[in-house]
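Comment on both lines for my students:
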Amino acid sequence: MDEEIMANKPQVQIKRQRVRSKRFRDMQTKTPGRQVELDPLDAIKRMKSTASTRFTESIEMHARMGLDPKFSDQQLRATVSLPHGTGKVLRVAVLTQGENVKLAQAAGADVAGGDDLIERISGGFLEFDKLIATPDMMPKVAKLGRVLGPRGLMPNPKACTVTTDISGTVKDFKGGKVEYRLDKTGNLHVLFGRADFKEEQMLENLKAIQESIEANKPPGAKGVYWKSIYICTTMGPSMRLSLSALQNVKGKGE
């Protein structure tokens, strides 16, 4: 009888608090809390002060969007050219043929080729961060789907990685163009520099991302588009931004 009563009792889920390091807890004292919205420049200054590791941390923007990725008209995937780049060296591979191979190499591609490169990738070669392809190569690239798809490396027109302008595209990605894509939970995660950037450079990169996200608003978006936006270093606590304040910041060249 006692066993039957116990079986019918609802199980209470105990949420365990995430264990944080002493360094992280010390850095949290420099933030006003996750619910306090900060002016973008103030948030950037506070964020820079939390970069306390022995390596140069990357800086990231995380946004919760009012989108449901289950619906095709609420998908969000695009690219943006950051005025000051990401601070990271991007390894670019190009799948093309003929004269385009030389154009890709001249533009700065780390590796370029046609059928030979496809065979290398099939054999396990994945020493690149971005794969660009010309449209004529896409039927051949299809067989690499199982290798490239799970790693997010499959060329896609929406990501500007299927193109006839090989030279310009390689230069763009080498110069700081980044891709962003809505994840399964309706959030965006975009790297926009390094902790050793100047505050003004961080702000201009962040502004470029905000403008790009608004310019690429999906046709099926309803209600509140932006729900919240945060910035942080790789190993630091997050700062919540005032979206209206960011929208009022003038972009580079304005």
